Amino acid sequence: MASSPVCIDANLVVIIVAPEAQRPAVLRLWESWLEQNRELVAPRLLTYEVTAALWRKVWRGLLPQEEARRAVKAALDIGVTLLDPPGLSERAFELAAHFRRPAAYDAHYLALAELLSCPFWTADERLYNAVYADFPLIHWLGNYRE
Q: pLDDT tens-digit profile of 133-143?
């Protein structure tokens, strides 16, 4: 049985499945969660965001299409539990308004972490900087120390 959940965002999954400079840090963090038997969770939109991010890499010439295709499959099979609890989008809307975010995608991760009372990890420094003072559940990969 898994212990308390950890909410992760799409950029952490992309870092794992595609070549990224932060990959060693994410892998160490991921391994620590697995050792602690933590359940990794995300809103269902994670699959769409991962697919879009990997396609952007192909479009920009940063990743061959076949490698991106394999990365999408790996991302979908990585073992993250995708959740869509009642009230998630409504709370995401409220959080996007509260933090004055231009889009509500990221607010779904915040809302899920809040609903589950669990930590939320991101590699998105702008998101972290925008909310950390009022949202103590958020953790930024750049601050991770083993």
A: 999 999 999 98
